[in-house]
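cron nightly-structures :: item 1 of 1
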Amino acid sequence: MTALFALATSLLWGLADFGGGLLTRRTPALTVVVVSQAIAAAVLGAIVVATGGWSAAGPQLWFALAAGLVGPVALLSFYKALALGPMGVVSPLGSLAVAVPITVGLVLGERPGLLQIAGIAVAVSGVVLAGGPQLRGAPVQRQAILLTLVAALGFGTVFALIAEASSSVTGLFLALFVQRVTNVAVGGTALYVSVKRGARAVPEGGFPWSSLPALAFVGLADVAANGTYSVAAQHGPVTVAAVLASLYPVVTALAARGILSERLRGVQAAGAGLALVGTVLLATG
């Protein structure tokens, strides 16, 4: 179950990242974050009311609140980096976030088996290689790398926090709702300050209403990924769940290759292959 839900997480996050990065090329990143997360919060609010999720309120929600504070910073940094591109380089580097939950799991006493340790090493090496050789170059590329590293630290922190935010299905819905409401509050405040300083909240032609379905997909896929990751982390070692969930850059890179015709270099293709080999080792271990 851990492998299944963690791999579902990687698929959902990969597609959400691709959509978010694509939208940010036409719409300010803060607006993408706020609108997509607001849609997700509205849907989650309806689910919480329908399932009676309020009864699961408890001290664990502080973890969800903390994840909500960190999340917008990570998303904003990542979407900006994806907009600078190329996605096939930025997205794999973002998976360095896996270092945070792996460290937390080891500190808490988790000890993966030898096959799983080998899988972790192979998968992480593959993800790093999938980032390609473009770590130096034009100022835009350096800025994208810096933003990606900030995002990776934030995502890793959210990984660790959301895994502790609930212990039941109804509690998970409530935790994700609290996280998203906090995301919207933090992101909305940042957007307001940005506009007051002269930045634009929407493109020159006005709000892109035709992009609303895509914004909804990004928000809902992101929240679904948080949910599947939480389930994966609760039913197995966090170290394994985190590594399998971190394969989302492969999905983003493949989407960029298929839709945007971004070319993968040989080292990136090799890295993707290693990541898949590591996945098999983790799943069978």
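cron nightly-structures :: done
The radius of gyration is 18 Å.
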